[in-house]
Amino acid sequence: MPEPRSGSRPTLEAVAALAGVSRATVSRVVNGGDGVRPHLADRVQTAIQELGYIPNHAARTLVTRRTGAVAVIIPEPEARVFSDPFFSRQIRGISKELTAHDTQLVLLLVEDHCDYDRIERYLAGGHVDGALAFSLHTDDPLPAIARRLGMPMVYGGRPGWTSGPGEPDRVTYVDADNREGAREAVRHLLAQGRQRIAHICGPLDQTSAVDRLSGYHDVLPAAGPELVAVGDFTAAGGAHAMAELLDRDPSIDAVFAGNDLMATGALRVLRERGRTVPGDVAVVGFDDAEPVAESADPPLTTVRQDVEGMGRMMARLLMERLGDGREGRNVPGPVITETALVRRASA
Hints:
The protein is of the alpha/beta class. The protein is built from 14 helices and twelve strands. The N and C termini lie far apart (about 55 Å).
């Protein structure tokens, strides 16, 4: 960008003088307003480039009533967010879409329940135009906070809460077809001749875990509680659940884990117990998380969901909603993306 002509910062007035237009015309061009003839807009842009003019963000916010920023809220501890590749892939998709809309991403994490007061104050302070949130639990206060503030929101994952007073019957969310993905995983194990198929599910206060458990039972309605153990979407949780399942029923010959990290924990315990994979026990995960699934030993058969694509879709829906000014009306329905089984050596 060219250097300004003098030591002082270029002003709107300077741009207007160089372009031969009014200050109001420059303001409309800078703030993305309508009603400026194309040849005048081109002159303004040329003057901006020549002078090295940089819009004043605070002044622009007063005019447009937009901050140019979106909050991404993840109600999970920092340690989990930065150790699970699911989160980085979702954030990457969101970031790419927001960048395409010249919008900043502000990341807000929830270490414990008291952090919601901080988040509510931040959202209420007008620092962002809207928010994206994913990995919510059924008792999460965030939807109620968004309702109180009238904050435009798009969620990642099927809502597990009920609508509040005055809230639309539907909220905008993006999710994978978790239930069908689980069905596909279990059908694959059955096709391999497996007879005692266990399931390590995620925490049941999250709808993704509930839907994957439901898909498991859709295919195996007679599976008893001894074949299901609850994990926490971490490798350690998967290892603990796998040990619990083997202690209950040593005849287990297959495991469907609710995500890839829990599947890697299961693989570790199976090795420690002297079980070969897939010889003695076949294992299927969920997510196709990079690099977890491919670097597992053996490489993990898993259900792929387009996590980055879901992040992009969340951001796109929010930007569309902000662009048409209909924050609380005409709320679009859910966007459900497909899943696909990826066959590798573990099953």
